[in-house]
Specification:
about 120 residues, mainly alpha, about 0% strand
Length: about 120
């Protein structure tokens, strides 16, 4: 059971290292290829050497990747919510308020108010 557990943990470490290799901005193509070949052809030695050589920066690269992903998500949300959306909502609310005032003054009948409201909200 212990060997099975260690084998599964080694696979997790292997996948973590491979994702770290390909996310790394400071490695060029040949460096990424070299680490990948080393980790695949000599798995235990390759993983051990990688953790010793580049293990300290793995957390920093993960944190930077998470920060970039978070910033991209926030930019997308801001873009999707956009100021145009808020202006349209504000404009619609103003128009509805004006229509309600016209109905209250008796300028518009209830039927005309409902038609204008339906047209505005469509």
């Amino acid at each position: 059971m212990m060997i099975f557990f260690l084998w599964i943990m080694w696979f997790f470490l292997l996948f973590k290292i491979l994702t770290d290799v390909f996310r790394s901005d400071d490695l060029g193509g040949w460096g990424k290829a070299g680490w990948t070949v080393l980790v695949i052809l000599l798995p235990f030695l390759g993983v051990l050497v990688y953790v010793i050589a580049r293990g300290r920066g793995m957390h920093e690269r993960d944190a930077a990747y998470a920060q970039r992903a978070d910033d991209a998500m926030k930019d997308y949300i801001r873009d999707a919510a956009g100021s145009d959306n808020r202006q349209t909502v504000t404009w619609s609310a103003d128009e509805l308020s004006k229509l309600a005032d016209l109905r209250a003054n008796g300028t518009l009948s209830e039927e005309e108010f409902q038609q204008a409201k339906t047209k505005l909200l469509a």
